[in-house]
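Long-time lurker. I teach an intro course on protein structure, and each term I like to show students one example going from raw sequence to a predicted 3D structure in token notation. This year I'd like something fresh instead of my usual example. Would anyone be willing to generate the tokens for the chain below so I can use it in lecture? Attribution to the forum is fine with me.
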Amino acid sequence: MKRRTGQDRSITQKWKPATQAIRGGTVRSEFGETSEALFLTSGYAYDCAGDAADRFSGEQVGMTYSRLQNPTVQMLEERIALLEGAEACRSMATGMAAMTAALLCQLEAGDHLVGGRAAFGSCRWLTDTLLPKFGIETTIIDARDTQAFEDAIRPNTKVFFFETPANPTMDVVDLEAVCGIARKHGITSVVDNAFATPVLQRPLEYGADVVAYSATKMMDGQGRVLAGAVAGTAEFINNVLLPFTRNTGPTLSPFNAWVVLKGLETLDLRIRRQSENSLRVGRFLETRVPRILHPGLPSHPQHNLAMKQMEACGPIFVFEVEGGRKQAHALLDALGLIDISNNIGDSRSLMTHPSSTTHYGVSEEKRLEMGVTEGMIRINVGLEDPDDLIADLDQALRAVGL
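-- Reply from a regular --
Happy to contribute to a lecture. Here you go:
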């Protein structure tokens, strides 16, 4: 039996996600390695000048430059596309490179974008600051209100851009309804799915056109490297996104791609266990703090919608203390096990104060509009024993009078 050196998409797309996460996209060299090979090269050699010309013209299949193609990076892109149920995927150097590229590749001066109010601070900077600099109009709405999308549409509206669940307020958007509105009006929907990953939520199945990721988060999931990805149709990825990225260069390094490939092998196991741990920790905190926003708890105002769209709740949620920034910081300082960190999606439990970290660059007025208060704390629940996490939170809460 001949050793497999590549894969047939007609076969791999029929595999279950757990199998795709281990074997999807794998291409073996002549050495027959079992683990994906790491190709650390910036360029490629040709047998003759004619071959080089033919590759650049597209007449010959092959690599030309690692800003465009790299074997390790392509394996990651194929694996993410399979997991997402997408025709194609392009990886990026970071999550924000992915968000920026997914928008700028299809927008120009005179176009209009509708964006969700609750978003990562840098994503709000894109919609509020960067896009208007290029003459792109933006309207920010409460994405929980499906009708708000319809009402915000103008003749020049080209893109809906939103997160679900949103960072950090855990707003949930009705994917099927909002993406349906976009399709009806010929608008491209771009969904940031970083909090859920394709294991827990697949926006394309609800009608989304483009899905963007910070693969730094759950996909790597162990706090090692930065990465991003954009998935969608082959038409969008190859004819709309690729011309932008090939000439602007937000390229993912082969080493980082290899690390994320290794992370994907355990993504399904990690995110489901972290979701279970998150529920345990959330139920404890619900009895101790004035307010908690956890999509897995019935107390979340959009709990039913979240559980309809997601297979599990995910590891991230927020809660609030009444003493504002002072009490929030004191609570973080009292932690003994859980780390203070602005990252998420890690196998370690992490907590942060969004107003003074991830959203510090957003004005106070806009933070309040988003629902980010001075007493809000975001937690990423990791793979530790939840009883240890609860014990750490219990002593920290008692230390600040809660």
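Some talking points for your students: Residues 268-399 form a domain with the Aspartate Aminotransferase, domain 1 fold (CATH 3.90.1150.10). The chain has a mean pLDDT of 95.
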